[in-house]
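Continuing the series of single-chain predictions for the mutant panel. This is the parent chain; the variants come on the following pages.
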Amino acid sequence: MNIDHIEAFLYVVHYKSTHKAANALFLSQPTVTARIKSLERELGVELFYREGRSVSLSDKGKDFLPFATQIVQTFQQGKKQLEETRETDEVCVGANGVTAQYFLAYALPKWKERFPYLRFQIITGPTAMILEKLESHQIHLGFIQYVHRDGICNELLLNNAVKLVKHRDHPLQLKDLIQAKELAQQKMVFFECGAFDWNYVHKMFEVEGVTADIEVRTDHLEVAKEFIRTKDYISFLPHLCVKKELESGEFVEIDVKHLLDMNQHIFLTYKNKDTLTSAFWQTICETAKRFEGIQEMH
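Parent structure:
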């Protein structure tokens, strides 16, 4: 039974005219008439007495009226409930600061295009805190480093390797197999963050018996990037935060893989995938692929 046919029936009853009902429904009169006839065929009765252009309820129509009213009211209430539920659907996401600032700012607008009814809460913090909130069901998913814990699932999502970068106009000449001694002669702004094991950087210089010229230490990525823009400093920074500058050519990577290879990855981490739709999980992965593929698209 078509809800539109029942609604047309109720409008004709209310206005006592198919013409007025059609105007109220923004339909043509033949369309309303066709819907009423379809409903009558389905019920096997005549719902109206017709005399010229006037219509009045038949006895069977009067019997059906309370049921039709209840059907439409129930449908509208159910639709309203679904809309209210959808409007308040909230996804709580945990992430380290780097991922939140540089990936989620890109990804969330894409997720909203696909799922406009969703609302998002973002909680930032270290891996241990995000893991604790996952286990206590305070968040739905996390974007963090790999964690080995019973009941916690990890899916590789993003590459966030640490890069040594300079401004394109920095005087350091790029060449193959640059040595730590040469790097130690350059002024460095050092980004300190607990998410990365910076001991590897220090050891790279120690092996060569030199000390890095660290003039500035900061715990803020954008501050470190502004120092690079002075064209006087180089810095080790996570890939996510300099991705845009590397793609535009403003920053240039100094290849030090022969000296140091700090591979870092961001994992999609969760406890129960059933808390969100499979379509949403798929969208997260697709967005990450597009994010990492921006460079190839340029």
